[in-house]
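tool_log.txt
---
The assistant was asked to compare two proteins side by side. It first ran the structure predictor on the initial sequence, then on the second. Raw inputs and outputs are pasted verbatim so the downstream comparison step can read them without reformatting.
(1)
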Amino acid sequence: MDLLRDNELIYGRLLPIDEPHLIDRYNKALKAFGFKPTKLKSFHVDRTGFSPEIAEECKDYDYLDPNGINRRFIILTPAQIDLPVVHTAFSNTSQLMFEFMSKNSRAIDALTIKDVIYGEIEDSVSTVSDIEDLLSINQVEFRVLSAEDVLGKASELGTLVDRLKQEPDAWRDNKMLERMVELAKVTGDIRENALVPDQVIFRHNAYWTSHFGGLYVFVDPDVTTVIGDPAAPGFRRSRPWQVSYLSIKDADAVFRFLASSGRIELPRASWIENSGYLEHRAEMVVRNLIWQADPDRNLSSVDKVWLQTWIHNNASAINRDGDFPFLNAAKREIGQLGQLKIEDVQPRQRFLVVRAKPRHADAWLTNRLISDFVPSDFVSRYVFNKQGFYKDYEGFSGAWRSHVVDVLKTTYLRDKDAFRNRLYGLTD
């Protein structure tokens, strides 16, 4: 993983923590979670406060995610809201953290001036043993604490202020007034600084989870759809009257679900011709075939002319695979008819020519699911399915790893927003 780390393809865009007072605050949160304080003089954190360096030091990459449920968080600064989440068992952890920090920005701004905020994203279950445990999670609650108990002191001061306003003789209570002064030295003027988070409960909607080998949960008004390995405990047995179960191995069923629920854009000229989507897919297919034919080939000098020559010289292998000829035929049909007759396409190949509807709430999750059916497109895997990409990467040869990194640097990393917008219609 060193090559990925050096090129900021793993643990990229994290926030450096090297100021002694912030390290001291982080250690207070670690101690509250039952860990020894770090001896590091600097480290990096993501939106949740997860640090790969701390994880390596304590030899536990799940130190903020025990049992893959009830995710812990450590907030040192409001700036964490702009960071990615790089290690999680649930794909919606990032969105939940963003909503919590957005809704409670005033309190977080004020608290982190003096203190560290930490706690758990508390679910309704403490462990996950089968699918029913996952489906029982309808909402989460942020349990929020602070090392210096600024939250508790602000709450106490608020109660005393209310008493002072409501009880006519309360101002005569010198002990109460002294306590208020003592508390105000820590909290400041709570009339100006909102120190207690206003909103801590949030909906738990569609998501991917790493449990049971990877599982997707999509939520619609009348039905919840679970997509995963049929061997997962509880598959087709948990709430069969209100949950639809689809095998991740059944490309036809998964595609029909995505199409019928309005989550994908079918291959039409309106978006295909200007996006370069089919051309991108075709290039990824060819690169994958090159890797399969010669995993140790040095591809550092590959350009489009070289790729075209390789295609001509390896026509038999390309035709046997079938994806490259299919994409060329699809491009011609869309150019002539304005669309592709998707019902005539093999189920597996349908995923080569569709993308998530950009404005659908589940667009990122849907693109992630599509990437599971198109493993040859390592760029899409990296963009939407980093856990899947990193797993694939472990099986790559050294030469192929270098090539993959070079392609990602010259395509996606060069301008992420423009790349996502052109191919997938997504804007931040």
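(2)
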Amino acid sequence: MYSGHFDGASRGNPGEAGAGAVLYNEEGHMVWQKFAYLGSQTNNEAEYGGLLLLLREIQLRGIKKIVIRGDSRLVICQMKKEWKVNSPHLKELWEEAQSLLKGCQATFEWVPRKENSNADLLSNKAIDEHSGKAVLKADLNAVRLERITPTIFIAHGSEDYAVDILHRACTCPAFVNRKQCKHLEAALRKLEQKPSFD
């Protein structure tokens, strides 16, 4: 029997959101995966977004029997019709999910986050990749840099961060989360403009 995992992530609830889904064949091999940036959504909307990604692929492949797993108790219990769907915006997503399930015998199972890691990684990747594009478009000239050593800068702002151009690293949360940030980009640009230090 096929199995699928879904997940959604929202940073802010509501905030930047992403969805991820993974499909496994009867032998347990991954045959498909997808992630999508959802814009500003709540956690529950993002979870449904991940489920809908999976259900569309199931329908496209004509799969008739599947076990669907996720770490959102709300979505799993609502899809099993154990919990009512009271929120109007979730009701629309629930109805779309039910429609996509026509002709398919699906069993829904809740799993802890650690057993849903592939879908979780994909949902966060959707946000990270979108945010990375935004960083590249940021006004890098607005970053105030103070050189401490030939390879170390301090980026000044609402908070100060250390930028290490030798090891291509920064101490800011953006870099820690996605290995890319405006501080490092600005420092590297400054280095290109000044090939040698004074």
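---
observation on (2): Confidence is low (pLDDT under 50) at residues 194-198. The chain is about 40% helix and 30% strand.
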